[in-house]
Amino acid sequence: MELIWEYRVLLLAGTAVTIQLAIGSLFLSVVLGLIGASAKLAKNPVSQRIAAGYTTLVRGVPDLVLMMLLFYGGQQIVNDLGSATGLWDYVEINQLTAGIASIGFVFGAYMTETFRGAILAIPRGQIEAGISCGMMPFTIFYRITWPQMVRHALPSFTNNWLVLVKATALVSVIGLHDLVWNASTAARSFRPAQSFTFMFAVLIIYLILTAISDVGLRWLDRRYSIGVRRT
Amino acid sequence: MAESSNRTFWEYLAYVSENHSPLDFVLVADHIDKFLYGTLLTLEITVLSLLIGGVLSIPLAIARAYKHPIFNGPIWGYTYFFRGTPLLVQVYLVYYGLAQFDFVRESFLWDPILSKAWWCALITFSLNTSAYTAEFLRGAIENTPRGEIEAGRACGMSQFRLMWRIVLPSTFRRALPAYSNEVIFMLHSSVVLSTITLQDILGVGRWLNGRYYLAYEGFVTAMVFYMILVFVISRGFRIWEKHWLAHLRPREIQSA
């Protein structure tokens, strides 16, 4: 316990990185999910095909593999492109960018399914009502689709978010100085390594993070279900 | 030109693959046996932990579903802990963490089991998947149609027989779609093996990249292997579901 207290600054700094990573990739995944869901629901067969390929790819491949591919391979591709076109010099993709990009990419696919289901759950008549009132497509999205979509999507969104928070632990493998990385480095500075103490602290911090997001998402759920009867 | 005509076809192919192809496929083909061994390890740990975890999860789920006065609370804590934290950290806790304690290192379990990455991974994976499986099995048990239980009671079945003959078979059927997700999730999680020095599919990919100083060959190959596995698993489950959930499918209308 004293050990953890002594290293609190390092652990808190790591937690901050983890939270930053989680929120960054959540933002990216929501954007990708909205794009994916509209591509899947569009009448265009090409966009449907691309979105289907995206979700199939992500469901088939573990996130750590995509993360490593992006972190090691993406770097080379970006630099090869740069030297071929002469548009940019040597670029280094840092671990945070690679982490956000890959976790966001993976969870964008899950969000696609979440949002697609949520949009399909909205009665078609309401959208037609919006059209007949002369609403613009954006107004329909903002006033009709979005508020109800959030309500339908929240349970599955909550689940995705909790899985996402846990997935952030994987970035320590590509060397981002997140909570797990900081803790295992601190643990190894002792002889013998105090890994149990530090890893247990990490587990507790993750539990606290998920508990906090549980409270927050429950609040959101209440806010968006105003006027809906609960069974 | 003259020297190139002396080369055999295989040498030429290796040359093209190494210098002109975006992916050195000959190099990957040369090490394909390593990837197959990696697949074997991935499958071994995944299947064993699913079996052990599945068996463990059944009593846990029953105790939770029927709110056993003593066990309900601790099992809730157990599932909450394992479902709320990353598997990677759980594996680190067991594999690197246990060495911290002298009594563990001096115990008779240390040499054959607790110091081996394979065993640590198997133990952690089993506990992890049993927590997830117990939670959705509990939901499925609670959703057993009342009529089925009443029918069993009316036939004079004892509590145990009712469980064994009615509730569990019906639960497993309803839980099958959720279980296919859990199997794929476990396969995806098994990449954690490569972080504790084991040569699973990703581990071999990382080794290949490190050895030949490559950027993506190993990862792309690993990706293809995982995709094939997931494809086979989801196909298998679809056939299985068709068989076991046949009574839940909408009846096909026969044209006269």
Assembly annotation:
heterodimer
Count of DSSP-assigned helices of chain A? 9
Tertiary shape of chain B:
flat
- Poorly predicted regions of chain A are none
CATH class of chain A: Mainly Alpha
DSSP E strands of chain A, number:
0
User: What name does CATH use for the topology of chain A?
Assistant: MetI-like fold
What is the mean pLDDT of chain B? 87
Q: What is the CATH domain class of chain B?
A: Mainly Alpha
So, CATH architecture of chain B? Orthogonal Bundle
Largest interface: A-B, 40 and 40 residues
Q: In CATH, what is the homologous superfamily of chain A? A: MetI-like
SSE succession of chain A? HHHHHHHHH
- The overall strand count of chain B is 0
What's the end-to-end separation of chain A, in Å? 45 Å
How do you describe this structure in short?
Chain A has helices at 2-6, 8-41, 45-60, 63-85, 95-120, 124-132, 137-167, 179-188, 195-224. Chain A has 231 residues and is mainly α.
Note down, in words, how this protein is organized.
The complex is a heterodimer of chains A (231) and B (256). Chain A contains nine helices and no strands. Chain A has 231 residues and is an all-alpha fold. Chain A has one domain: MetI-like (MetI-like fold, Orthogonal Bundle), CATH 1.10.3720. In chain A, helix 2 crosses helix 5, helix 5 crosses helix 7 and helix 7 runs antiparallel to helix 9. The model of chain A has no long low-confidence stretch (mean pLDDT 88). Chain B is mainly alpha-helical and 256 residues long. Chain B has one domain: MetI-like (MetI-like fold, Orthogonal Bundle). The radius of gyration of chain B is 24 Å and the shape is flat. Chains A and B meet through helix 3, helix 4, helix 7, helix 8 and helix 9 of A and helix 5, helix 6, helix 11, helix 12 and helix 13 of B.
Keywords:
heterodimer; A: 231 residues; mainly alpha; MetI-like fold; 0% strand; B: 256 residues; 13 helices; 77% helix; flat
SSE topology:
The complex is a heterodimer of chains A (231) and B (256).
Chain A lengths: L1 H5 L1 H34 L3 H16 L2 H23 L9 H26 L3 H9 L4 H31 L11 H10 L6 H30 L7
Helix pairs in contact in A: 2-3, 2-5, 2-8, 3-5, 4-5, 5-7, 6-7, 7-9, 8-9
Chain B lengths: L1 H5 L2 H11 L5 H6 L1 H34 L6 H13 L2 H11 L4 H5 L3 H5 L2 H26 L3 H9 L4 H31 L11 H12 L4 H28 L12
Helix pairs in contact in B: 4-5, 4-9, 4-12, 5-9, 6-9, 9-11, 11-13, 12-13
